[in-house]
């Protein structure tokens, strides 16, 4: 009808102007009970009349609704009932139409629920989906006879701003519970009806203020996450087909304009490209066309609409071939994230094929925004994995403005994840999987005729990436591959290849066999293969089968899959395309072992999840003693269902841990306007009690005082509140909104106490605040809603399990532990010594031809626990250590050393023909009873070429420790047994040229500069310094550049370290680009560089801020000279600029403060070692080199 046509036209007009006019949907809900009284009700009529008269009411401006309630609520008129003000005013002023109902009952809570269900809906005229503010004015005269808290919270969660007005006997406390916020301009209470006249003006002003502030907030404030997402190549592919129409095309232009306007478009930061498509695609502009934002926005405003058909597949191919290329300005080659945003409004007229998958394979992250008739299957076909994170769907173009902010946050969050988080979490994954050294893994891959060639390559790529995570070898992780179609075919078994290189070559050569899909037959075949593989090991290891298929099996899978599980084989079922989810569950057996993707190119996205599952048993076996506190947001903005999901999140982590007073402790604190402790760390020592306590938590409500809660929480990690400050402690914060107070200082105070803080924000959370809470991007997790908490739960638990280990691996050696088990050693201390030994075993490559271990426990007499050749696997050595018992008696250390020497020098498991390095590791807590014999015995052992390390605890005599180890100084002293685990390191010989480029600008505090020098010295200590080994150069910069010393200047460590210690900070500004240009002079032959001889060249930049000059060109010039650039950012360093400098996620590092540099040092050393050729085997087990300056004469093994 005419009204509907006018309604639609006006709505479109309003949206086209992109909120140029500031209006709202307003509903009055009036108390009509006898408490109000007939005369009072007449005053309310006049009050509403005065307010409405001051508003510009029409279908495309202010819309008004009216309801009355007492025992029940009733509709007077809806938001779409009246299209002009005269008719509406007639109704309001009419005692017959808007009649006083009376009655004793007053059920305000029920009426609020009615308001939400009936009035604030699209069918009633609500324009919420169009982004129009929603306002309710609730007028009451007495306390409600039912609960108002839950329905009022639901109304707020729906986005309705509630103004609560109380007259007569109204209760202020209840009014505040109803209101959007418990203060002005949302709460008004008057005692006399005569005051309503004056109040009407105030209410009108308050409404207009609310509306104006909401629109200003939307327009002027870009999402916080977009303020840091400043480096990316973003291409828009926009549907301009004939079904869209001119008006809707203007809405798309407005959406694009507003989206791009919040980004930092410039030559070195965000680049924008745009193409439109209908029957055929049209290039509007490429990534390298415009260098500044204003030019991009001008072009968008001038875009023309052409109409036509909709060939999405053709358009995707066009973008792939012409936009994401070096020629068109793509910076993928230097590590800049590549994004494609596809906006489409209907089903494609050409068949969707390989274009989207090909784009994803090339590293393009793909978002799909579907409007009106967009096909959801096609959107999933386009979007990256998981599709729920990369798809947005709306019913009409006028909703574009309503989703604008959330879509911006979604895209910017992804950019931030790519630039600052992905490489960090990959490193954590690799760190955790170091513990998984012994396993048998078979891949069972579908090679049937339904698999396309590209998808078969996807499977091979997936297998290669999984294999790269592990150390491959006959006594390590072994991998085999079976392909199946109508029948299974062994490509290679587990014993065939013993190196990663051989495996990769073999996988590359696999040829697809075609045929049917007989998965059941293939599973039966695998049982025999696993059985045969087990015979080739002398001990049992964990066994895994990873099945990949794209279709339903032609035979039954249930029985053969179950038989494999009965044999202890863990099945992972990965399905794609037409695979049957029910069948996958039969294969996997458990939902967590089943994975489904729409396309096999998503396999690479599953890699981390699969690997994390495989490695979790070993990695999390170390999780014996930690403190974890959950700090959960219980404010009024969170609904009941979402609060329950937070409790499920907590329970999920609890279920994976060993709860106990001497194991994992868990506490919980809830916060709203104030914090409330639910239970302390030491309250519950059993898992059932803890789970019940979590179940019993009741939501607090109120505001969001996150900073206050963080301050409150700090004390709960202390001993007085059940905490254990000497062990690892974690705080997990979950919130869905912006904190109403300051969070930076209290969060930093927690981190300064050594507490690791994780921040989880649901999409309305403030990104800047989350980063302030977590301290670094890798500790921040964004989710769009509470249903997505599963992913951060798994990642956070994995990070807790995978605490970085500072010691790399010992490759070859014979090691004998000499352990004090005398009467002075308490049982708990003896257990600490055993944990220390196990930690060293875990960091060694245990095998008959690699590292072997023996052990002697002594008191009055020494007792051999096991010989060097007695145990051949790491698990057997660990089991033997855990079975050791104290001997008691006195401390006859010299006698024990003599016995231990026998293990290394006799033929019973002693020397090997290759004369590998030999070690004795002595651990004692007191002076030797036979101290007179210690000097000669120790010297005799050292004269045999045996290296002695001594660890003294508590009452141990340091002079005696020095005597035992001799001139090497390889002794360590700790005050108690719990700190034994802190002393691990490793040694190797490698060759390279390393230049430090250190920021000496005025923003660097003196203490931070000292920490930078300490970091450089630790890096130096990690390598053997010599003209034919590692050379070090150093330059400092601020506004200027200063060479401190060349690569050729120092040929040994001591004088090099002294020179580093003596450098003086320059101060002034920070011109990193200028410094990068000048540092090339240190990589010349004249400066000592061996680049021409093929020696790897490394530049390690250390900075705390953003450069005042351009960095991209000078960094590119260094890379063109084959110089590997590493960048360590501290504090306010610009992560995006670090990425521009390194052109690699893997060589960019960030720490919150200079004090945290120590934590990241081993990662940097390992990465440098990984990128250079090793020139020798690791020579000794572990040293304190990365932690104790006085042992600077040792070397660090970083060869992996």
What is the total domain count? 6
In angstroms, what separates the terminal alpha carbons?
75 Å
Strand residues, percent: 15-25%
Give unreliable regions as ranges.
Answer: 1-21, 805-810, 982-989, 1173-1200
Mean pLDDT across all amino acids: 86
By DSSP (H or I, 4+ residues per run), the number of helices equals 37
Corresponding CATH architecture of the largest domain: 3-Layer(aba) Sandwich
Describe the biggest sheet? 6 strands, mixed
**Radius of gyration based on Cα positions:** 35 Å
Shape summary = globular
Helical/strand content category: alpha/beta
Q: What's the CATH topology name of the largest domain?
A: Rossmann fold
Residues in helices, as a percent range: 25-40%
Keywords: Cell adhesion, Collagen, Extracellular matrix, Glycoprotein, Repeat, Secreted, Signal
Subcellular location: Secreted, Extracellular space, Extracellular matrix
Pfam families: VWA
InterPro entries: ECM_Assembly_Org, VWF_A, vWFA_dom_sf
Structure, described:
This protein is an alpha/beta fold. It has 6 domains: 24-211, Rossmann fold; 224-420, von Willebrand factor, type A domain (Rossmann fold), CATH 3.40.50; 438-604, Rossmann fold (3-Layer(aba) Sandwich); 623-802, von Willebrand factor, type A domain (Rossmann fold); 813-982, von Willebrand factor, type A domain (Rossmann fold); 992-1169, von Willebrand factor, type A domain (Rossmann fold). The protein is 36% helix and 20% strand. The protein contains 37 helices and 36 strands. The strands form 6 sheets. It has a 6-stranded mixed β-sheet, sandwiched between helices. Strands 9-8-7-10-11-12 form a 6-stranded mixed β-sheet, sandwiched between helices. It has a 6-stranded mixed β-sheet with strand order 15-14-13-16-17-18, with helices on both faces. α30 (934-943) packs parallel to α31 (958-965). The longest helix has 25 residues, at 196-220. The radius of gyration is 35 Å and the shape is globular. The termini are far apart. Its main location: secreted. InterPro entries: ECM_Assembly_Org (IPR050525), VWF_A (IPR002035), vWFA_dom_sf (IPR036465). Keywords: Cell adhesion, Collagen, Extracellular matrix, Glycoprotein, Repeat, Secreted, Signal. This is Collagen type VI alpha 6 chain. It comes from Callorhinchus milii (Ghost shark).
């Amino acid at each position: 009808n005419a009204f509907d046509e006018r309604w639609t036209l006006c709505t479109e007009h309003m949206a086209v102007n992109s909120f140029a006019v500031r209006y709202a949907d307003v509903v009055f809900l009036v108390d009509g009970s006898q408490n109000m009284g007939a005369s009072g009700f007449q005053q309310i009529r006049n009050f509403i009349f005065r307010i409405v008269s001051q508003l510009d009411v029409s279908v495309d401006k202010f819309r008004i609704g009216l309801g009355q309630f007492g025992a029940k609520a009733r509709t007077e008129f809806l938001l779409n009932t009246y299209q002009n003000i005269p008719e509406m005013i007639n109704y309001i002023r009419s005692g017959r139409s808007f009649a006083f109902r009376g009655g004793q009952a007053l059920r305000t809570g029920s009426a609020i629920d009615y308001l939400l269900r009936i009035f604030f809906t699209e069918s009633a005229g609500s324009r919420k989906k169009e982004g129009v503010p929603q306002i309710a004015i609730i007028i009451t005269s007495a306390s409600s006879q039912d609960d108002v808290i839950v329905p009022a919270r639901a109304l707020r969660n729906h986005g309705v701003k509630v103004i609560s007005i109380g007259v007569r006997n109204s209760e202020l406390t209840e009014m505040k519970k109803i209101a959007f916020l418990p203060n002005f301009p949302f709460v008004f209470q008057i005692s006399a009806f005569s005051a309503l006249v004056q109040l009407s003006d105030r209410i009108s002003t308050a409404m207009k203020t609310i509306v104006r502030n909401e629109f200003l907030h939307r327009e002027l404030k870009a999402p916080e996450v977009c303020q840091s997402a400043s480096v990316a190549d973003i291409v828009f592919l926009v549907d301009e087909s004939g079904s869209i129409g001119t008006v809707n095309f203007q809405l798309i232009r407005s959406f694009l304009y507003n989206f791009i306007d919040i980004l930092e478009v410039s030559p070195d930061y965000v680049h924008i490209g745009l193409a439109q498509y209908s029957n055929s695609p049209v290039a509007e502009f490429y990534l390298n066309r415009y260098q500044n934002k204003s030019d991009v926005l001008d072009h968008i405003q001038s875009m023309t609409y052409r109409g036509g058909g909709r060939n999405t597949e053709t358009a995707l191919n066009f973008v792939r071939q012409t936009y994401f290329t070096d020629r068109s300005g793509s910076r993928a080659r230097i590590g800049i994230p590549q994004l494609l945003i596809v906006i489409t409004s209907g089903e494609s007229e050409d068949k969707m094929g390989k274009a989207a998958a090909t784009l994803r394979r090339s590293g393009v992250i793909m978002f799909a925004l579907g409007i009106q008739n967009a096909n959801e299957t096609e959107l999933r076909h386009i979007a990256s994995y998981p599709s729920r994170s990369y798809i947005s769907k709306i019913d009409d173009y006028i909703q574009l403005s309503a989703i604008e902010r959330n879509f911006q946050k979604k895209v910017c969050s992804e950019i931030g994840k790519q630039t600052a988080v992905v490489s960090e979490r990959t490193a954590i994954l690799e760190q955790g999987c170091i513990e998984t050294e012994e396993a048998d893994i078979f891949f069972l891959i579908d090679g049937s005729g339904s698999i396309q060639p590209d998808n078969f390559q996807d499977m091979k790529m997936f297998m290669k990436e999984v294999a790269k995570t592990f150390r491959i070898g006959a006594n390590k992780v072994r991998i085999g591959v079976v392909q199946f179609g109508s029948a299974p075919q062994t490509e290679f078994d587990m014993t065939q290849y013993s190196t990663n290189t051989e495996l990769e070559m073999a996988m590359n050569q696999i040829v697809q066999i075609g045929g049917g899909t007989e998965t059941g037959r293939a599973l039966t075949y695998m049982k025999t293969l696993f059985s045969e593989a087990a015979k080739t090991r002398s001990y049992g290891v964990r066994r895994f089968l990873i099945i990949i298929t794209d279709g339903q099996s032609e035979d039954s899978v249930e029985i053969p899959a179950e038989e494999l599980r009965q044999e202890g084989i863990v099945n992972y079922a990965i399905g794609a395309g037409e695979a049957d989810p029910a069948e996958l569950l039969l294969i996997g057996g458990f939902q967590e072992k089943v994975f489904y993707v729409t396309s096999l190119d998503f396999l690479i996205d599953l890699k981390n999840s699969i690997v994390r599952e495989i490695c979790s048993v070993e990695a999390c076996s170390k999780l014996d003693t930690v403190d974890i506190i959950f700090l959960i947001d219980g404010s009024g903005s969170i609904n009941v269902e979402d609060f329950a999901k937070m409790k499920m999140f907590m329970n999920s982590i609890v279920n994976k841990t060993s709860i106990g007073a001497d194991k994992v402790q868990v506490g919980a604190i809830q916060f709203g306007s104030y914090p409330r402790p639910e239970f302390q760390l030491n309250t519950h020592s059993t898992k059932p009690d803890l789970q019940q306590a979590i179940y019993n938590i009741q939501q607090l409500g109120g505001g969001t005082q996150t900073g206050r809660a963080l301050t409150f929480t700090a004390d709960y990690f202390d001993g007085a509140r059940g905490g254990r400050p000497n062990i690892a402690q974690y705080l997990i914060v979950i919130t869905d909104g912006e904190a109403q107070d300051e969070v930076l200082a209290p969060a930093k105070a927690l981190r300064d106490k050594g507490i690791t803080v994780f921040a989880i924000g649901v999409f309305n959370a403030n990104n800047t605040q989350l980063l302030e809470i977590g301290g670094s991007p890798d500790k921040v997790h964004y989710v769009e809603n509470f249903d997505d908490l599963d992913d951060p739960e798994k990642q956070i638990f994995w990070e807790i399990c995978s605490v970085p280990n500072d010691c790399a691996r010992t490759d070859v050696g014979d090691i004998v532990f000499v352990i004090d088990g005398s009467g002075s050693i308490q049982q708990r201390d003896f257990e600490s010594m055993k944990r220390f030994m196990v930690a060293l075993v875990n960091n060694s490559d245990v095998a008959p031809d690699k590292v072997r271990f023996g052990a002697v426990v002594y008191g009055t007499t020494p007792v051999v626990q096991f010989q060097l050749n007695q145990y051949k696997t790491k698990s057997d050595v660990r089991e033997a250590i855990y079975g050791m018992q104290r001997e008691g008696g006195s401390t006859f250390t010299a006698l024990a050393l003599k016995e231990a020497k026998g293990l290394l020098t006799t033929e019973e498991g002693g020397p090997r023909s290759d004369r590998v390095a030999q070690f004795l590791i002595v651990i004692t807590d007191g002076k030797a009873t036979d101290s007179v014999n210690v000097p000669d015995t120790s010297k005799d052992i050292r004269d045999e070429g045996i290296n002695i390390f001594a660890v003294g605890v508590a009452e141990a005599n340091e002079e005696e420790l020095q005597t035992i180890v001799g001139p090497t100084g390889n002794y360590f002293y700790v005050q108690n047994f719990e700190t034994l685990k802190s002393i691990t390191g490793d040694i190797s010989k490698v060759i390279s040229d390393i230049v430090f480029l250190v920021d000496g600008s005025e923003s660097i505090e003196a203490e931070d500069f000292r920490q930078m020098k300490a970091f450089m010295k630790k890096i130096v200590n990690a390598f053997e310094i010599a003209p034919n080994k590692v050379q070090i150069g150093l330059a400092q910069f601020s506004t200027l550049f200063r060479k401190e010393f060349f690569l050729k200047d120092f040929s040994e460590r001591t004088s090099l370290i002294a020179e580093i210690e003596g450098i003086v900070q320059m101060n002034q500004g920070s011109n990193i680009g200028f410094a990068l240009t000048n540092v090339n002079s240190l990589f010349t032959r004249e400066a000592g560089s061996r680049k021409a001889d093929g020696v790897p060249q490394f530049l390690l930049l250390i900075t705390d801020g953003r450069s005042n000059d351009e960095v991209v060109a000078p960094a590119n010039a260094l890379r063109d000279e084959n110089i590997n650039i590493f960048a360590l950012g501290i504090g306010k360093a610009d992560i995006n600029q670090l990425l521009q400098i390194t052109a690699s996620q893997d060589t960019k590092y960030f720490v919150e403060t200079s004090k945290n540099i120590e934590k990241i040092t081993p990662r940097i050393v390992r990465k440098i070692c990984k990128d250079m050729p090793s020139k020798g085997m690791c020579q000794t087990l572990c040293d304190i080199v990365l932690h104790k300056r006085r042992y600077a004469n040792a070397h660090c093994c970083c060869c992996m």
